[in-house]
Specification:
12 strands, Nucleotidyltransferase, domain 5, alpha/beta, 5-stranded mixed β-sheet, 7-stranded mixed β-sheet, disordered C terminus
């Protein structure tokens, strides 16, 4: 039976709302998809706790989202929070603050990776062949989740591997803009990415093998795809036009090589460029190394941008999407 679901996602950088009709076979209609800034990454205390100011900023937007769920007659609303709340020492205070409005579920890294994998695999099911080896890279503001799996001939999604060792975009942007020079910042970002990836144990089924498909989500990949699309078409795309847009590993490597030379010649205070933490160019510079290094590790020739992110996967699970997992620590709903 098809019902109407809503997911409110509270992240380090973003606040998002998804309202869709769905059943155990997937999403049948997206009713509303919108987003705003959470500013939670900027409104943390020195110990990582969420400030009252940060909570109130989120509350304002969440109340608007709740009004929309009522307007569209949603039958089941779920609110989720990611790494910024997961790592906060005052997580309980944050949850209690929102309790009179709605219950907030703090996702584990495993929950995030599982939901992102289900979202992308479902969205691109028509492009995949049975037993294709698939990886999904989800770079959020607070952390980056990596997942791996396949899809069977009958359409069953099988999740085979999860990991959450990579830093998120906020840490990487801060490392870039906080360095004394731009090239030092770029090198620091790459160093952190490689150090984190060194802690990642290759997924057993993929050790020494290449993946057949890679999907990615996150602000840095979206910004890179936006720049590539603009160069190709002569105009900036609407976000929905980027869903499924592809960047090759070679293309990303050329961008990294270009930045390596260019940043060595540019000063941080150059008025011709904006290298602030909020600037699109800072987002691209700080994030693309994550995608490239993972793609290189698993032999992904290209990566497709998925606009169906974490909230889509959470909604699919609420609707009872069938999947199977080979991970004993993950509970399947199949």
């Amino acid at each position: 039976m098809t019902n109407r679901y809503a997911v409110i996602e509270i992240g380090t950088r973003g606040l998002r709302l998804l309202i869709a009709d769905a059943n155990e076979r997937g999403i049948t209609r997206v009713v509303r998809s919108t987003g705003d800034l959470s500013y939670l990454g900027e409104n943390r205390l020195k110990n990582g706790a969420i400030s009252k100011k940060g909570m109130k900023i989120v509350q304002e937007v969440v109340e608007q989202y709740i009004a929309e769920t009522k307007k569209f007659e949603v039958q089941n609303t779920v609110a989720i929070a990611t790494e910024v709340i997961r790592a906060a020492p005052n997580q309980d205070e944050f949850i209690d603050f929102f309790a009179p409005i709605l219950a907030v579920k703090v996702l584990s890294p495993e929950d995030e990776a599982t939901s992102s994998f289900l979202a992308s695999t479902s969205a691109f099911r028509h492009t995949l062949s049975p037993r294709d080896k698939i990886i999904v890279i989800d770079q959020g503001g607070g952390s980056t989740e990596l997942s791996y799996g396949t899809i069977e001939a009958d359409g069953t999604i099988i999740l085979k591997g999860l990991d959450s060792v990579m830093p998120g975009s906020v840490e990487l942007v801060n490392a870039f803009v906080g360095a004394t020079t731009l090239i030092r910042g770029f090198n620091e970002v790459r160093s952190r990415v490689n150090e984190a990836l060194a802690k990642h144990s290759p997924f057993p089924d993929l050790d020494g093998k290449k993946v057949d498909a890679a999907f990615g989500m996150g602000s840095s990949l979206t910004s890179l795809m936006t720049a590539n699309y603009s160069d190709e078409h002569g105009q900036r795309p609407k976000l929905w036009e980027l869903h499924g847009y592809v960047a090759t590993q070679d293309n990303i490597k050329r961008q990294i090589d270009f930045l390596d030379g260019w940043l060595a010649t540019i000063k941080k205070n150059d008025r011709n460029f904006d290298f602030s933490p909020e600037a699109e160019i800072s987002t691209i510079i700080s994030g693309i190394s994550t995608y490239y290094e993972i793609m290189n590790r698993y032999g992904a020739a290209s990566i497709s941008l998925s606009r169906h992110g974490l909230r889509y996967g959470v909604l699919l699970r609420e609707a009872g999407l069938k999947f199977r997992t080979e991970l004993p620590t993950i509970v399947s709903n199949s």
